[in-house]
Amino acid sequence: MHDFVEHQMIDHPEIFGDETLKPKEKGRNSDFSKEFYLRLKQQEYEKLEDKCQEKETQIEALDGTAKEMKEDIESTVNQYVDSVVNTEMKKEFMRYATLENPKTTLGKLVSKAFRTFKEWWDKTKKPEVAEKAKTSILQKLRESQTIVDQRKEQQSPNLNRNNLRPER
Predict the structure, then answer these.
(1) What distance in Å separates the CA atoms of residue 42 and residue 53, rounded to the nearest whole number?
(2) CB 24 within 8 A of CB 2
(3) Which terminus of the chain has a smaller tally of CB atoms within 10 A, N or C?
(4) pLDDT exceeding 90 applies to what percent of the chain?
């Protein structure tokens, strides 16, 4: 455009007279207005703002997921810690319960309570539990024997046929 105006000024000196154009500047040779550039920058800004909002939404969602996972992990860890603590408590109780001559008041109390419980167990529950266990074991043995007998019967006709063949 600068070149076109320059030629027009040369071709029509009667119109332009002594007027001159500013020399061309590097990087400033476009015909867009300031308002156009402002609109472009505003559009770019709005696009970036939308992207930022999307990213913030994604971050919030990830933060929520991370929080849930952290809570789940803490809950699981607490369950396992409770389990370990309870197991250790039971082991300690049994250590006290089985002491021959406990020296502490707690040891004497636990040991006496365990002996009383064991006497009750041996008289009332142990025979019942032992009978159920014995019955269950014998039933499983009978079932296993039946299976073995059935397999023998299935194999015995094959053995008899082999015995009936003439020898070569």
Answers:
(1) 16
(2) yes
(3) C
(4) 54
Separation of alpha carbons 165 and 168, rounded Å: 9
Distance between CA atoms of residues 90 and 110, nearest Å: 12
Residues 45 and 99: their CA atoms lie apart, in Å, by 79
For the chain, the farthest-separated pair of C-alpha atoms sits apart, in whole angstroms, at 138
Please state, as a whole number, how many other Cβ atoms lie within 10 Å of the Cβ of residue 6.
Answer: 13
CB atoms within 10 A of CB 110: 20
Measured CA to CA, the distance from residue 69 to residue 56 in angstroms comes to: 20
Q: Rounded distance, CA 41 to CA 58, Å? A: 26
How far, in Å, CA of 119 to CA of 136, rounded? Answer: 25
pTM beyond 0.70: no
Single out the residue of 112, 88, 119 nearest to residue 98, CA to CA: 112
* Alpha-carbon gap, residue 37 to 149, rounded angstroms: 97
